[in-house]
């Protein structure tokens, strides 16, 4: 989980006591995004106040196998629009489907 304030991409932070129980350490373990080998395509919305353009850029810089970093062509597209927008098929899903390998 990438925190807006931490500049780290970590496993979920359960708090000191639960982290010690689950992870054996006070803070959750940090993921090394440069070790990602699966191809990744990031999609983001400029109007997203949770995954902001700054956080998307931070993540993109660190991913080991980033293929594309795509901004949705709508400045009002927000975090919730990824699953609630009535235009998500045109703005997002069609692009995703076009990038998937064809079935053999």
Compact description:
The protein is α+β, with helices and mostly antiparallel strands. About 35% of the residues lie in helices and about 10% in strands. β1, α2 and β2 (about 65-70) form a beta-alpha-beta unit.
Features:
single chain; 104 residues; alpha+beta; two-stranded parallel ribbon; globular
Describe this structure in words.
The chain has 2 domains: 1-31, no CATH class; 38-99, no CATH class. Helix content is 33%, strand content 11%. It has 4 helices and 2 strands. Strand 1, helix 2 (53-62) and strand 2 form a beta-alpha-beta unit. The longest helix is centred in the last third of the chain and has 12 residues, at 88-99. It is globular. The model has no long low-confidence stretch (mean pLDDT 91).
**What is the global morphology?**
globular
Percent of sequence in beta strands: 5-15%
Q: Give a quick account of the main beta sheet: strands, pairing sense, barrel closure.
A: 2 strands, parallel
- Helix and strand content put the structural class at alpha+beta
Topology:
Elements: H1 16-23, E1 40-44, H2 53-62, E2 66-71, H3 81-84, H4 88-99
Parallel strand pairs: 1-2
């Amino acid at each position: 989980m990438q925190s807006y304030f931490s500049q780290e991409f970590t496993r979920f932070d359960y708090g000191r006591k639960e982290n010690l129980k689950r992870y054996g350490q006070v803070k959750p373990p940090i993921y090394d995004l440069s070790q990602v080998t699966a191809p990744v395509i990031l999609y983001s919305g400029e109007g997203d106040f949770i995954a902001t353009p700054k956080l998307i850029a931070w993540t993109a810089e660190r991913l080991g196998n980033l293929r594309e970093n795509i901004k949705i062509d709508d400045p009002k597209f927000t975090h919730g629009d990824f699953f609630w927008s009535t235009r998500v098929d045109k703005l997002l899903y069609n692009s995703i489907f076009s990038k998937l390998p064809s079935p053999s």
